[in-house]
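Record type: ASSEMBLY
Status: queued
Input:
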Amino acid sequence: MHVITAFGVGRVMRSKDEKYSEGDIVLNAFFPVAEYCVVPSSVLIRKIDPEAGIRLPEYLSCLGVPGFAAWVGIEVLGEAKPGSNAFISAAAGGVGMVAGQLAKLKGCRVIGSTGSDAKVRLLKEEFGYDDAFNYNKETDFDAALSKYFPNGIDIYLENVGGKMLEAVLNHVNPHARIPVCGMISQYNQIWTEREGVRNLLNIVGKEARMEGFLVSSYLDRFADFTVEMEDYLKQGKISSKIKIYEGIQSFVESLGSLFSSSKFGKVVIEVNKPR
Amino acid sequence: MHVITAFGVGRVMRSKDEKYSEGDIVLNAFFPVAEYCVVPSSVLIRKIDPEAGIRLPEYLSCLGVPGFAAWVGIEVLGEAKPGSNAFISAAAGGVGMVAGQLAKLKGCRVIGSTGSDAKVRLLKEEFGYDDAFNYNKETDFDAALSKYFPNGIDIYLENVGGKMLEAVLNHVNPHARIPVCGMISQYNQIWTEREGVRNLLNIVGKEARMEGFLVSSYLDRFADFTVEMEDYLKQGKISSKIKIYEGIQSFVESLGSLFSSSKFGKVVIEVNKPR
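Status: finished
Output:
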């Protein structure tokens, strides 16, 4: 049997480990997608304090994998600093919405690209982006970036690949950082049929750095991240949009929503209503 | 008047700066391509000791820009360590020949690609490459890399771009480093007509790092490099092939040779015979 696992928040029903008691709320990176499960206590990340003033789904969003990916991309690999010009693709997704807010908190000028006008509004009005554009309308990416980045791009959080990356490489500043979180435009194709990026030569003259990353390689920084992010959340400096699907039967629909342009923010399944 | 400048070695004819005297041999990053010239002493890098046992053209090869580029690529950005699998493109060029030898000295397994069978022999017999191939014969780069890198590629010193880079990205190991020194296959084309690289998505799963560099950004390391490289040269641990063109009238021919595949190693013009 193949079990699909996910980052999850759960309530302890019964425990043989004295560190955990019935009723504890726990965070785990490898919960099976299931209503009930048995897991070894060694895989639990930590207990969650339900009185901390942070709503539970946030532990899967700002404080979970997407928030951590945003933090690694913007703070570790992106080296965000005051005055940097940051561009976030897939900006209204789970990673992007946190990344833009983190970059703003570090003093960057932040522009996002996303797939609908409603999301453009969300980025500007709720997540504090300096500006944002709908890539389905501004189809000449090169012209769009000329308009939004008159002083060039210092940080590009890469989530889409293909033509957008190519356009970005025409606008990078010296020593630009391009943390590569994903390339969603490239996932559903045989690689030889994908759009090639033709201007990689630009990374020589601009001394740009492109670096792929998986959050699993940065787990030694997870505690630092948690302290910083909890602080932002408690101070109301970062917020997150979470789309909650109800019941385990919504799994396939929720997964599919990741690949349409329909979703906002982080997708979470609420398997059981909290009692 | 536009003056073409180059890294050069010269003999002082007359000096108004007491640090330099007639007859001193000096190294400079910005000599005009000329038989005689007047330069401010502030731009001279240093005096060369002609009794140090290092032939003068080597100060433009192993100890000059190509050697420094190789050192930055292999030791700084490539993080070469014992057991790393290193691939050097344009391996018989000025940078490549030094890069391969440096990688060997750091304990790497080193394979090179180059444009003729004679250069393949040179790499294996004179520069200590573990193996090398002629890219004009092994035209299926993907198959060639499967053969030469059964355990994948940890370091790729990128000098060519295009199809070779694409093939490499199918063979990179986790956390591979790709210092990008140049992309000579891409120089003579309008960018929209260049070959696109279609498999950049691989850098996410492999967490690969691609980083363009110019030696001018690493000048704070030039002294460290010089000490290390002079030591290698005096111990005979590194050698270099230098093609010397005679007389300033050979400038255009020597420049053209960089783009033809005909040259071996570093190209130097001997403007005046040493007296």
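Annotation: Residues 65-77 of chain A form the longest helix (13 residues).
Annotation: The interface with chain B takes residues 161, 165-166, 175, 180-183, 186-187, 191-214, 217 of chain A (CB under 8 Å).
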